[in-house]
Amino acid sequence: MSAVMVTRKVTRKWEKLPGKNTFCCDGRVMMARQKGVFYLTLFLILGTCSLFFAFECPYLAVHLSPAIPVFAILLFLFVMAMLLRTSFSDPGVLPRALPDEATFIEMEIEAANGNVPTGQRPPPRIRNVQINGQIVKLKYCYTCKIFRPPRASHCSICDNCVDRFDHHCPWVGNCVGKRNYRYFYLFTLSLSLLTIYIFTFDIVHVVLRSVDSGFVSTIRDTPCTVLEVLVCFFTLWSVVGLTGFHTYLISLNQTTNEDIKGSWSGKNRVQNPYSHRNFGKNCCEVLCGPVYPSVLNQRELLQEEAAGPAVPAAPETSAGAGGPESSTTKTTAPLIPNEHTPEDARPSIAAPPERSSSPGEEKPPAPQDPASSSSSSSPSRETDPAQAKEKTQ
């Protein structure tokens, strides 16, 4: 019989997670699969800032103040830090139900709804919870097999339920949710300041050069500055407008998803149960609240069983150093004889191992056949008749 050994292959949880996300750096970086627009964002920020540092900052540092490039560098580093923090983090993805949990939830729903007649539409799968005196409906996700928590929604691009889902932003290459919304807002706010800063000093640079050499020659001699002015001009409106919109949402403690759907301003005029009716309190809760841990835990270790050939264990002996072996110790012969073992001492593979006896232990007498024992006890029966006659004489 061939022995089989069960080995354990160690993997991370992110390798088995469903959905349409990509992971890098052993699960530390989590992004959406569509990252083309994110690369465009990096190109625009890095390209515009590189041109500004290369062509405008040397002139402005000499003619105005050396603090201008220093502040621009600090603002640029903060923008990049907030962008990468938003793009590479878990936005608040909710884990899907396990098969046993999904089966139990389905049984609960069927028991609550009863048997639906054929041809009739089953009732919607919802649950009602009360938050700050307001009834909020929890919807059932048919993909994740869970009742989504309040303010959660399923992202069709990433194919995951995200807690406090705001929107999926292709510019950052990730969803914006409970765990990275504040970083997204800080990114848009700092990017607006950086765009205004570069645009303003580009104009100042053109004006100062125009005083010395004229406007036409300045435009002809500084094409990079003109390019920066155009990029900043068209970027300024979208980025500043986006920052203003999210400032409005933060003041109401509302998400983009709720604003688009009209969750708190529809026909029923339902009040927002999450708003404190105060601008400062809402801003403090969204921007200064606690950092929620990830419930996905994508770097958790998983163990998978895999079959493979077994390696025979080495025989264990309990004999003391220099002393005789104990009477309860068993020595097992190896499956393959050792090359240093003498030929006469090598055991057969087919034969079972024999029990070794210690010097102080006596072997019990082997059972004998009754016929042989009787013959050995009466030697006269085996004696020749002639010899018996001579003894009688």
Structure described in brief:
It contains 10 helices and 11 strands. With 393 residues, the chain is α+β, with helices and mostly antiparallel strands.
Question: Could you describe the 3D structure shown?
Answer:
This protein is of the alpha+beta class and 393 residues long. It is built from 10 helices and 11 strands. The strands form 5 sheets. A 3-stranded antiparallel β-sheet has the order 4-5-6, with no helix packed on it. It has a two-stranded antiparallel ribbon with strand order 1-11. Helix 1 (36-63) runs antiparallel to helix 2 (67-87) and helix 4 runs antiparallel to helix 6. The longest helix is centred in the middle third of the chain and has 33 residues, at 181-213. The radius of gyration is 42 Å and the shape is elongated. It starts with a strand and ends with a helix. The model is unreliable at 313-353, 355-363, 367-383 and 388-393 (pLDDT under 50).
Helix and strand arrangement:
Elements: E1 4-12, E2 21-24, E3 29-32, H1 36-63, H2 67-87, H3 99-113, E4 126-131, E5 134-141, E6 146-147, E7 153-155, E8 160-162, E9 167-169, E10 174-176, H4 181-213, H5 215-221, H6 223-252, H7 256-261, H8 279-288, E11 301-309, H9 370-377, H10 385-392
Antiparallel strand pairs: 1-11, 2-3, 4-5, 5-6, 7-8, 9-10
Helix pairs in contact: 1-2, 1-4, 1-6, 2-4, 4-5, 4-6
